[in-house]
Specification:
- The chain is mostly helical.
- 64% of the residues lie in helices and 4% in strands.
- It has helices spanning 3-37, 82-100, 117-142, 147-168, 171-206, 213-237, 243-246, 251-271, 278-300, 303-306, 317-327, 353-357, 360-369, 383-394; strands at residues 48-56, 59-66.
- It has a two-stranded antiparallel ribbon.
- The model is unreliable at 303-310 (pLDDT under 50).
- It has two domains: 3-300, no CATH class; 306-394, no CATH class.
Length: 396
Amino acid sequence: MSGTGWELVDLLARWVHVIASIMWVGNSLLFNWLDRNLEPPKDAAPGSLGEIWLLHSGAFYYVDKTLLGGRPLPKPLHWFVVQAMTTWWSGVVLLIAVYWAGGRAAMTDPGVALLSHNQAVMVGIGAIIGGRVLYEAMQRLVAPRAPRIATAVWVAGLTAIAVALTQLLSGRAAFLHVGAMLGTLMALNVASTIVPSQKQLVASIAEGRAPDPAVSARAKRVSIHNNYFVFPVIVLMISSHFPTVYGNRLSWALLLILIAAGVAVRHVLNIRYTLRAWPALLAATMVLGLISLYSVIRLGSTSAAVAAASSPDPVSFADVRSVIDRRCTACHSALPSDRSFGAAPGGVPFDTPEQIESRAARIHDRAVVSRTMPPANKTGITESERELLRRWATQR
């Protein structure tokens, strides 16, 4: 398929993915909010587990959570599964279009590991499958008897996978594939645990039997996991816009901090109904996360290695233009010779001196500090050329 074809697939899949994920996450957070705000039943029918009144869009809504208490199944009965699977399938299409086959983003980085593209794709797929196998083994075999051990083993496995990916793939690909792994866990939790448990619940009610508590407990457990996965998945999916993070020498630590911060913030929001001082705790959690990110970014910045005093000899713009023309304008041009990323990725062309001069700070950040440009160094920029760009940007 042509570069234009992959770009259109990327656009359509991303559009669907964002819309479906908003619907899925919105439903999940709404039901989580309902569970934590239900009032003890007063006038509700037998079998009620809680009730709540809502005000929205100019009207009142009454919600009664119930196991029906012997009453027949209501019709129609609305299920929530399409959004989850649409999010997952559109995400798979995005991985194919952007990373695995479309080539719109680099899977490999020679500065990280000498892997071929196909080897990197296998690493990414293997991480997603391996993470799922470990998680499912813990949830099915260990969690029913020892949930804390299952959680500890899974967190250790997640950490190992995240660190390994940052040592094997390009920074962007590593972050995205960890997010894809967590998103896959969420979607398959819905498909293989939550929905089957709901089918068993419906069958039990239809046959007049009491629901199996073990089935409901496992479905509730993975539903809570999905609730905690949401914020980390979202931040990893948007991480490709932040090269200071994924291009850092300590990107593995930043990745883990983002996951931990997302989980911590989600936890504070989950317990806020039982904690009077939750706003202060939420603010402290967010500030601690930001301080941790900033500290590690500074610690792992490669700028220290290249921030020696500028040479007394000024760098001519002609020399800079020569480097930009050889290493950057293959993509960053209104008429690029490499159309993998479309014309002028990020709306950044380097066709005129004014366009180059106005983006000196950006060139320094991407080519010298984070070293994420060119992607996977696909145009072969040399260390001396990066140093030349550094001297030019810092002597301005």
